[in-house]
Design a protein that fits this description.
Layout (H helix, E strand, L loop, with lengths): L22 H20 L4 H5 L9 H20 L10 H5 L23 H21 L2 H34 L29 E4 L2 E5 L15 E5 L2 E4 L5 H9 L11 H10 L7 E4 L2 E6 L2 E4 L11 H10 L7 H9 L11 E7 L25 E5 L15 E3 L8 E2 L3 E2 L3
């Protein structure tokens, strides 16, 4: 069992399109860098840790390791590498997630029921696919490599998403333990930047004048299909908080009866508060009268100056209402971030917006099974922007659209405020 230097930090994925080496070398280098990072993050986990599924929305760590392997076996080796022999005939059923066109799938909520294949079996599966993939890269023609490079790039960014999910899922599992384990005892919450009056919600504000702005990913660098097409949108006038909302501000909301005041909440949100017994953000607990939080390093005292984390959309919306403010739209967030106006836009918490996760004007899902990646989820969810402390280096960008259901709060999610004249 290895111990990572940090839960989230590692070298960024090398470029698939670098001029420094051959196409085969660049593909192999980028592929192995991401695959090794997954194993580095799984390193502190015991086989028992890798089995647990603490709720239906989470998945066992060994499933994340296997599913990301199945992705390459299914879509790269199975479709492009002549003569490839699958590691196990039944793994496609076990480790497909939601790709209906790729065949039947094991039920998501039952992933934690499987003691076998075990963690060691998954290690062997990963080694088999890694070796076959690198061999394929070095034996394929340059035309073939050029054709498969976009698919490999999608697969690597897909695996980086699961690297983050693996940490949030194991943290949720560890938080259920009466003797809470530490994933990495040396882990520390990232330092945040704060400008303006720390005693006031938002601290310092930036004005966005009314204007037409380009929204979405421009250029040819990697992006998911939900970040396109670039389109024009009216934004402003609006003021955005430069700073993320802190634990101290959240404690004030709690002390003022925030969780028991129905007028602050959306109807579904207040029903969720009652049904789930929420009195504080996710992973918070009161010990001897003091609020503490379950972290990747175990239970730690609440840091008043740190950005608040593990919030649902319902909680973020209620806090904004309590503050007499709003949540920004994803367009407002993008315009402000692109102008460099936001402190800690990346690397601490994903930030809830009040924008529904919907297709951009003119959106078209990519053809084939990978067209299932984003488009079919564009309903009943909210967009989050930025990135978190668990997001792999190189996986963040201003146009990135994360999305979750409004009651979800096991991710590293927080908020910043927006305000409108009048």
């Amino acid at each position: 069992m290895t111990k990572p230097a940090s839960a989230a930090l590692a070298a960024p994925c090398p470029s698939l399109f670098s001029d420094s080496g051959s196409p085969a070398h660049n593909l192999a280098e980028a592929f192995l860098a991401v695959r090794n990072e997954t194993e580095r993050r799984a390193g502190p986990l015991t086989p028992e840790d890798q089995l647990i599924q603490s709720m239906p929305d989470a998945s066992p760590a060994k499933w994340h390791r296997a599913h990301t392997t199945w992705f390459f076996e299914q879509f790269l080796l199975g479709e492009h590498c002549r003569g490839y022999q699958r590691f196990h005939p039944d793994y496609a059923f076990l480790f497909n997630s939601y790709y209906v066109s790729a065949g039947p799938r094991h039920a998501r909520h039952q992933r934690g029921h499987l003691t076998r294949p075990g963690a060691d079996d998954i290690t062997a599966y990963r080694a088999h696919v890694d070796a076959a993939t690198v061999k394929f890269f070095h034996e394929a023609s340059e035309d073939t490599l050029a054709a498969i490079a976009p698919l490999v790039e999608v697969g690597l960014h897909h695996e980086q998403q699961h690297q983050e999910l693996m940490l949030t899922d194991i943290l949720h599992a560890f938080a259920q333990n009466p003797i809470p384990p530490a994933y990495d005892p040396s882990w520390r919450f990232p330092a945040s930047t704060r400008s303006g009056d720390a005693s006031r919600a938002g601290g310092e504000w930036v004005d966005l004048n009314e204007g037409i702005h380009s929204i979405g990913h421009a250029g040819e660098t990697f992006h998911f299909d939900n970040e396109k097409p670039v389109h024009r949108a009216l934004v402003g006038p609006v003021r955005l908080a430069r700073n993320l909302v802190t634990n101290a501000e959240w404690l004030a909301f709690m002390a003022d009866g925030g969780y028991s005041t129905p007028t602050l909440w959306l109807m579904d949100g207040f029903a969720t508060v009652g049904n789930e017994g929420w009195q504080a953000p996710g992973h918070w607990r009161q010990i001897d009268g003091e609020w503490q939080v379950m972290t990747l390093a175990g239970v730690r005292p609440i840091d008043p100056l740190a950005p608040v984390c593990h919030l649902s959309y319902y909680e973020a919306d209620a806090f904004a209402r309590w503050s007499g403010k709003h949540l920004p739209t994803e367009m407002e967030w993008e315009v402000a971030a692109r102008a460099g106006h936001l402190n800690d836009a990346f690397g601490i918490v994903w930030q809830w917006t009040r924008s529904a996760y919907a297709p951009y004007p003119g959106y078209r899902a990519i053809e084939g099974a990978l067209g299932e990646y984003n488009g079919k989820f564009m309903v009943n969810q909210l967009v989050l922007r930025g990135s978190s402390l668990a997001t792999p280096i190189g996986h963040s960008r201003i146009s990135y659209r994360n999305f979750f259901y409004p009651h979800h709060r096991w991710q590293f999610t927080g908020l910043r405020l927006a305000d409108y004249a009048g």
